[in-house]
Amino acid sequence: MASSNIGPELQRMIDLLAKLPGLGPRSAKRAALHLLNRRDPLMRPLAYAIAEAADKVQACATCGNLDSINPCAVCADPARDRSVICIVESVGDLWAMERAGAHRGTYHVLGGLLSPLDGVGPDDLKIGKLVARASEEGVTEVILALATTVDGQTTAHYVADQLLGKDVSITQLSQGVPVGGELDYLDEGTIAAAMRSRRPT
Hints:
Blueprint: H1 8-17, H2 25-36, H3 39-56, E1 58-59, E2 66-67, H4 73-76, E3 81-88, H5 91-100, E4 105-109, H6 127-134, E5 141-144, H7 150-162, E6 169-172, H8 188-196, E7 199-200
Parallel strand pairs: 3-4, 3-5, 5-6
Antiparallel strand pairs: 1-2, 6-7
Helix pairs in contact: 1-2, 5-8
């Protein structure tokens, strides 16, 4: 809610900050004041970094990762094992896997999970592109690294069905990922353990 004693420029800044995950109106006001009190060391560099990211960062045409180069640094890395594709829900999950250092293959970001209640169907996700990638010569394994929520497991089963008949092994994360857990909130050791103990679906 706008305050009558706050100017329009500052109010717009607060309203936009409040749209960020984890920030409500009060937190957004505190963040705005913190930035304004540190204009040169923090606010101006942040504004520049945001503008530069808006202009240069894009989704990788191959896997869906976010980077300023296309294909992204992961896909362009010649040391990556291109025979293995790890499927994740979001770029945040891809970053979590990279932090854990548990996967040296490639990735495929679905861009969400199947959720009939929210109106998210197969056509809203990058499943067709995944099937095409899994059909490429040299791909031998697809890892389903999706959340153990109802939507995550529904998506995993659907993707596995779409890959039936392809000459690939389908595995999924096992031990270490708790029911209801999401990759972005897990520590590196848990992710690494889950990757090591993946099992056939």
